[in-house]
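Question thread 4412

I'm putting together a teaching handout and wanted feedback from people who do this every day. The idea is simple: show students a protein as raw sequence, then show them the structure tokens that encode its fold, then repeat with a second protein so they can compare. Below is the first pair exactly as I plan to print it.
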Amino acid sequence: MRLFVVGATGRTGSLVVQQALDRGHEVTAFTRRPEAVGLSHPQLHVARGDGLNVADLSQLDGHDAVLSIVAAPDRRPTTLAEQVARNLVRAMSAAGVARLVVTSSHALVATRPKAALLLVRALLRHAYADARNMEAVLRASDLDWRIVRANRLVDGPGVGSVVRMPGGRDFDGGLNELSRADLAATLLDVVADDALVRQAIEVTGARLP
């Protein structure tokens, strides 16, 4: 597949790019900072641009799918994820590219643990509002979107085992840490899975013995 990766120089996005290349995909890393890509590969192309500029996103023309790993960077009011989603809908519709995978947060739909959720939702209320609005933009579109909701992301090597649940479900035993490497692998699995068109899924790390 020809994959267009938005957020390609972030901690998860850079892993998506590397793993996609390892799987034999052709990849365009879309970033404001091409010098930060740090990879050289015959199947890798680097596109300079900003997801807040819909004209820059026209570079996705000719690709098979888009993966967008965008999240608010702090606790201030923001519309970053929502605006990038709106621009992707416009650019992808114009280019005839339908397949889109985005990351979101499991905290939007989780119901437990209640005390911890109340605290984190208060602290990150602006980021979660942005993520919720982003999801609404996609649901109202005609794209073949897929939403992957995760939490408790950590750096480090993947363990190769991820627990997936249908959208809106809680995990038995709570949410475990999920490595960004395993999230990246999940995103690449999801973009190729036709059974997940216009669905959200919840993901967490496997409980280790």
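The second pair follows. I'd like the answer to focus on this one:
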Amino acid sequence: MANTRSDDLAPLTVSETPEEKFREFLEIRGEKLTEPRRVLVRHIFSSHKHFDADELVRDLHEAGHAISRATVYRTLRLLVDAGLLRELRLTNRSAYEHDYGYPAHDHMHCTVCNRVIEFRNDDIRQVRDAVSREHGFRASGHRFVIEGVCSACSRAHSPRRRLDLI
């Protein structure tokens, strides 16, 4: 799945690594950071991209890690619960992205090529805050995904007109 990130979405400085944060979360729950979980966290946080569970399983196997699909799915759920990953519910599947150490942002999702484009827009945040105030609601965040077709797919799928053929 392709990923685009604008310059104002650079990683934030954090006090703990994702692995340390995950270990702390698991300890509170009485669980351990097993070697497969450690491999998953390191792999996921080694680069910033959107991915789905099947892509992660494939990437891990290509990298020589024999981690079961069930372990991947269970660990993804734990990473979301720990606040390290965010689950994006897209048109026909769920994708995941880093939540820990990255600024708040929104997304555009191309329903043709599955490309996910990240962006920040203060107007969206201001509308969220104004609507929340109007209803006596204290917002802690939001999820905004614009579904549609990216420019590359629009060009590739636009019908040719007779004048274009001359």
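Top answer:
Good format. For the second protein you could add a caption like this: Residues 2-6 have pLDDT under 50 and may be disordered. The beta strands are 3-4, 85-89, 94-98, 106-110, 116-119, 145-148.
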